[in-house]
Specification:
The complex is a heterodimer.
Chain A (H helix, E strand, L loop, with lengths): L1 H18 L3 E3 L5 E2 L5 E3 L5 E3 L8 E5 L7 E8 L27 H14 L4 E11 L2 E10 L8 E10 L2 E10 L3 H14 L2 E2 L2
Antiparallel strand pairs in A: 1-4, 2-3, 3-11, 4-5, 5-6, 6-10, 7-8, 8-9, 9-10
Chain B lengths: L1 H22 L16 H18 L5 E2 L2 H15 L1 H4 L3 E5 L6 E3 L4 E5 H6 L3 H16 L2 H29 L4 H40 L6 H19 L19 H15 L7 H20 L4 H12 L5 H14 L2 H17 L4 H13 L4 H12 L6 H7 L2
Parallel strand pairs in B: 2-4
Antiparallel strand pairs in B: 1-2, 3-4
Classes of the chains: A alpha+beta, B mainly alpha.
């Protein structure tokens, strides 16, 4: 009986992260994201989603994850995927490498999305240099559609490689309405992102 | 005596099955009447479902609506199954890297770009399309649905019998429950076995189309052979076990590729019919599409599988475009030795086609990633050749 109780307690403890609920992120208050030294100060309220896309990442949304989603990648280490594998055996995701050039990051992102969502309809539209977290960085825009739905989705991302790790913030939303409306809120997050030294 | 009777019956059944397995006659083409309408409630219901699917599928973003390409693939279909049969087919080309095609009971045929890329010639594509058409002509979806329902009924009633025996007990309750379980397993297994048999029948009917067509029947086993080789290349690259010699499992709905290759090779040799493969026409018609489909393939993160496909398409003569694709594949994986190989491929491309700006871009990036300062020079060449390139600002930042 005692053993069963212990087993129950362990199961409950391990199940907790998966069941973690969404949390309100206050406006104008600095907050550390993705279990990383990256800190952002949003200009409006957001909801942090309980489910993380991967080990060093977290997602925020305003209206729901299919509608407007900002994802923080807080220092992806070499030989790690951007997010959790969908089917490691038959469709493994590509892995980040610290030797990558900034121009390789949009390609890594594109391949990861194509494989994880199993869609060929994914395209990097523009790639431009920028500064992010005080480092040379790449900014890129993309469009894609998920399989079995005809919604055209658009996104924007900014990424830098700092001390061999990948730091990135992405935004994606349906092209109709949400992308235009929430782009400014995403840009505000990126503009005020800092990394602790 | 009673036992002896069973043995005789079993012997006759075994003899018949072995003869059937050995003979595997290619059927004569059944008479074909066009404008078929669904019969009975099952078939009408099935058609209604797939009609609805087709309506939404028609406008999908993954469908390639290119009239000349569709017309060309339709022509291959007509050369394969004949003018009367091919009129029934409504073709949809889908941007999908997997090696696949399918045909719905209402005449909607879906062909993946992965199949178009990996078929070497018209004959190979025709054989696979013929196989799918055979499923359609033999109304396999309907029969599979009906068989599945029958097996489901048997499994459910066996479950009821088992549960009743368990509830009401009695001397032989345990045996009854075990028997009920066996019946359930057999019923479920029969559905998979039925599907595997349908695949064999479709292979045979496709061989019958090939016999009546202008194509060489050896194309059919050839395409399976290379499918096996590509799967092996993928498995090797991912450090996985080859499944080439695996037997068909309980829940497999296709016979193994090796079994199909062996059977089809034997049938093709027995047929002893010469024929064309239409490779020149095929290469010409797909020339404008291959770059995009190869690009889709490279982005699937299957290095050795993609390299195998490229080597198959190229044969002994690597065109600058195929060499460029190979260089991009190697640069994408980006191991130090891959980058060295990619640099070599890019150099070959610019040696043969000095106007290939993208090759200078790839060359420069591969060199920069290997800490080779010469990369900056190649990137400058790229920017001179394409000053208005989409990524010009980004590339300029890299070489500052």
């Amino acid at each position: 009986m005692k053993r069963t109780l212990w087993l129950g307690a362990i199961l409950l403890a391990t199940a907790q992260p998966a069941l973690a609920s969404n949390t309100l992120i206050a406006a104008q208050a600095p907050v550390a994201v993705a279990k990383s030294p990256m800190t952002v100060t949003p200009d409006r309220e957001w909801n942090k989603m309980g489910a993380r896309p991967g080990r060093n990442s977290e997602s925020w949304t305003i209206d729901g994850d299919g509608l407007n989603e900002v994802t923080f990648y807080g220092g992806i280490e070499p030989d790690r995927t951007l997010f959790r594998e969908v089917n490691k055996h038959s469709t493994p995701l590509p892995r980040f490498s610290s030797t990558m050039l900034l121009t390789d990051i949009p390609a890594l992102f594109e391949a990861s999305y194509r494989i994880a969502l199993n869609t060929p309809v994914m395209k990097i539209d523009t790639v431009a240099p920028t500064t992010f977290l005080g480092h040379k960085a790449v900014q890129f825009a993309f469009t894609y559609s998920r399989v079995d739905e005809e919604v055209r989705r658009r996104g924007d991302a900014v990424a830098a490689i700092i001390d061999g790790k990948l730091f990135m913030i992405t935004f994606d939303a349906p092209d109709v309405f949400y992308y235009q409306r929430d782009m400014a809120a995403y840009r505000a997050i990126v503009a005020r992102a800092v990394i602790a030294r | 005596m009673r036992g002896g009777g069973w043995r005789q019956v079993a012997a006759v059944v075994a003899l018949l099955t072995s003869q059937a397995a050995q003979a595997e006659p290619i059927p004569t083409l059944p008479p074909y009447s066009g404008a078929y309408q669904p019969q009975g409630v099952d078939e009408r219901g099935l058609w209604m479902l797939v009609d609805e699917n087709e309506r939404s599928f028609r406008d999908s973003t993954v469908v390639i609506n290119d009239a000349p390409l569709k017309a060309y693939i339709q022509q291959i279909m007509c050369r394969m199954v004949g003018a009367a049969r091919c009129q029934t087919v409504r073709l949809y080309i889908v941007r999908d890297t997997s090696f696949n095609a399918s045909m719905a009971p209402n005449g909607m045929m879906i062909v993946h770009t992965g199949l178009l890329l990996r078929a070497r010639d018209e004959g190979e594509l025709a054989a696979v399309l013929g196989h799918e058409f055979a499923h359609f002509e033999l109304r396999h979806t309907l029969l599979g649905f009906q068989q599945g329902r029958k097996a489901g009924d048997i499994a459910a009633w066996a479950g009821v019998a088992g549960a009743a025996a368990w509830t009401y007990g009695g001397r032989n309750a345990y045996d009854t429950v075990r028997m009920a379980r066996s019946v359930q397993n057999a019923a479920i297994g029969s559905t998979y076995a039925h599907t595997r048999n349908q695949e064999r029948q479709a292979d045979l009917l496709s061989m019958a189309y090939l016999r009546a067509s202008a194509y060489d029947p050896h194309c059919f086993p050839d395409v399976w052979d290379r499918l096996l080789d590509k799967a092996d290349a993928t498995a090797h690259g991912r450090r996985q076990r080859s499944k080439r010699y695996d037997r068909a499992g309980f829940s497999d709905n296709h016979p193994t590729e090796l079994e199909r290759t062996t059977t089809l090779r034997r049938l093709a040799m027995a047929m002893n019919k010469p024929g064309e493969d239409g490779k020149a026409r095929y290469d010409m018609a797909l020339a404008g599409w291959r770059a995009q489909w190869i690009d889709d393939e490279i982005k699937r993160n299957d290095f050795e599988g993609t390299d195998y496909i490229l080597r198959q398409i190229a044969g002994p003569d690597w065109t600058p475009d195929l060499l460029f694709a190979r260089a991009e594949l190697y640069r994408t994986r980006g191991h130090p030795h891959d980058l060295a190989a990619a640099v070599g491929f890019y150099r070959d491309v610019v040696a043969r086609d000095p106007t290939h700006a993208e090759a200078y871009r790839g060359l420069g990036l591969a060199q920069l990633r290997s800490h080779d300062a010469a990369g900056a020079e190649a990137l400058r060449t790229y920017l001179t050749m394409k000053p208005a390139a989409e990524d010009a600002a980004m590339i300029s930042m890299l070489i500052q």
